[in-house]
Write a structure and sequence with these properties.
This protein has 13 helices and two strands. It has about 280 residues and is mainly alpha-helical. A hairpin with a 2-residue loop joins β1 and β2. The two termini are about 45 Å apart.
Length: about 280
């Protein structure tokens, strides 16, 4: 009787998980399927789940109608610089707030931390005016530097500080006794130990930068500077939306993230737990 209940419980659990997985994967399946359909067969009713015939030409058209390789490059290099810069500043500032004593340290940290609560939309107009005065609108500068030092950067500082706090102070004291300066202690001892926190931060930052749409929409005017999320709007005109190309572009834009998740899924899952450090 007990074994039967156990089998029934596992069956129900896996049935629920399978249904939820299908619901989650259905939009992704529809995106891939639509990207391989002819435009005239996208809105058929009942819907055509499997493309017939399979039209790989949509992916060729994607790169021929617009310089999509350029948009990929823009997104890649912006996300890479933002990720590297955010990790650099967060590692330094997090170490300072966790291990170095200076006046009003906690007050300054709380003030900086409160900046995370300010919505992006509130700071957009003054930041845009500042960028415009410096001639930095319609460049990639507003998409690279402010994210490093804004709310995303402060999240990184918070994450790194919480991680450094868990490292025993005896390591710091031993390094001082051996004659290490604070910078040498940071580079040689603390930074290698903070690799899990930095890996987590880099994944979250890369995902956010890659998917960012609002800030490129505000700051970029020239189409050759567009990132992928903004470039998707180029497939919509007065005559309608080229959904087969939009879906093909979405598949191409999703592939780097899937590859990243495939190789870093362990760090990604650990990162979700790491954000709960006290």
């Amino acid at each position: 009787m007990r074994n039967n209940n156990k089998v029934l419980r596992y069956t129900l659990k896996y049935a629920v998980l399978s249904i939820v997985s299908l619901i989650v994967l259905l939009p992704f399946f529809w995106m891939v399927s639509t990207s391989l359909k002819d435009f005239t067969k996208i809105f058929l009713f009942p819907p055509q789940w499997l493309p017939s015939p399979v039209r790989f030409q949509n992916y060729v058209d994607l790169f021929q109608t617009h310089p999509f390789h350029l948009y990929l490059f823009n997104s890649l290099y912006i996300a890479a610089i933002v990720t590297a810069g955010t990790c650099f500043f967060a590692a330094l500032a997090g170490y300072a707030f966790a291990k170095i004593h200076f006046p009003f340290k906690n007050v300054i940290f709380l003030v900086l931390l409160s900046s995370m609560m300010i919505p992006t939309e509130v700071t957009t107009i003054p930041l845009f005016a500042w960028m415009s005065n410096w001639g930095l609108v319609d460049t990639h500068f507003p998409l690279i530097v402010p994210p490093m030092l804004g709310a995303g950067g402060m999240f990184g500082v918070f994450l790194c500080r919480q991680f450094y706090i868990t490292i025993p102070s005896e390591l710091d004291e031993a390094a001082k006794i051996d004659g290490c300066s604070p910078l040498r202690t940071f580079v040689s001892i603390m930074l290698p130990l903070a690799t899990p926190a930095l890996a987590t931060l880099s994944i979250f930052t890369l995902l956010h930068s890659w998917n960012e749409f609002f800030e490129p929409l505000v700051y970029l005017n020239s189409s050759h500077l567009y990132t992928i999320p903004l470039a998707l709007s180029l497939f919509t005109s007065e005559s309608g939306t080229q959904w087969h190309l939009v879906m093909a572009a979405s598949v191409v834009a999703t592939l780097p993230l899937l590859i990243l998740f495939f190789f870093a899924q362990k760090k990604f899952i650990e990162g979700v737990a790491l954000t709960g450090l006290k």
